[in-house]
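> example.struct
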């Protein structure tokens, strides 16, 4: 069984992920693990406080690929060069670059997209409108030149969503329709699946096949059963697996995913095939 984990980051990436034992970030990582259903030690992620430990976690879980996601927001910047440093030379790791045209300027953000893809060898672009200052919706005009550039280059877009958005009003999947309609070749990947607004996201994804969902750790929380039902039908090529490591164990997340009730006929696509197609990887 091949598995591509679409959201999998080492603890040493940032204090937010538990990089410093005894810190508030470390305590928050432990809390979040308990909150999303981790069984066993809520400090399991401590193994990935080193690069060697993170690779061991990925390999022991049997992942074909693990996707390490960058971020660029006013409150947290995970530099793209650091993402490159983590994934470079390791076939099992892929990196996603973070940008913010509000901070970098549109031209600066576009230049960083090209640098991240062409020079750093990263595989997609992460954008987090709801975490900006001010917060924005993804259909804000600021981002349209970014979408146009990504679509022209065939680079997938990864949007952060979900309940950690500082203002829940900016966790609105309905705002994706305008983007998906204007850029039908742009693959729009929704991290956290806009949980808890699951039905709304499914409604937009039903209409626009270029919208993909990675519910990751929220797939295992109440209100996400509709993702399973949809993936057994129309969403079978639009749902992708993610563990959210270090906030949830990789192996447990795979086991829990297999127990959710997905049809055997779609499991390979959900766990690997859809992600492989997104990144142009062999299956």
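> example.seq
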């Amino acid at each position: 069984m091949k598995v591509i984990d679409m959201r999998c980051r080492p603890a040493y990436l940032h204090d937010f992920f538990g990089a410093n034992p005894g810190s508030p970030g470390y305590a928050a990582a432990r809390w979040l693990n308990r909150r999303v259903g981790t069984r066993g030690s809520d400090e399991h992620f401590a193994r990935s406080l080193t690069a060697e430990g993170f690779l061991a976690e990925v390999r022991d879980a049997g992942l074909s690929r693990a996707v390490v996601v960058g971020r660029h927001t006013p409150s947290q910047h995970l530099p793209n060069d650091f993402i490159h440093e983590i994934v470079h030379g390791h076939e099992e790791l892929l990196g996603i670059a973070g940008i913010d045209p509000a901070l970098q300027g549109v031209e600066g953000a576009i230049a960083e997209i090209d640098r991240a893809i062409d020079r750093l060898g990263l595989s997609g672009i992460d954008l987090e409108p709801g975490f900006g200052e001010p917060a924005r919706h993804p259909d804000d005009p600021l981002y349209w030149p970014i979408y146009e550039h990504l679509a022209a280059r065939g680079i997938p877009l990864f949007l952060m969503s979900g309940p950690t958005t500082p203002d829940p009003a900016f966790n609105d999947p309905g705002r994706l329709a305008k983007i998906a309609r204007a850029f039908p070749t742009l693959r729009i990947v929704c991290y956290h699946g806009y949980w808890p607004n699951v039905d709304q996201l499914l409604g937009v994804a039903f209409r626009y096949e270029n919208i993909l969902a990675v519910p990751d750790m929220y797939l295992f929380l109440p209100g996400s059963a509709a993702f399973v039902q949809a993936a057994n039908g129309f969403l079978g090529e639009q749902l992708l697996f993610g563990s959210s490591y270090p906030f949830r164990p990789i192996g447990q997340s795979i086991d829990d995913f297999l127990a959710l009730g997905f049809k055997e006929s779609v499991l390979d696509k959900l766990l690997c095939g859809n992600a492989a197609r997104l990144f142009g990887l062999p299956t």
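> remarks
The CA atoms of residues 159 and 190 lie 5 Å apart.
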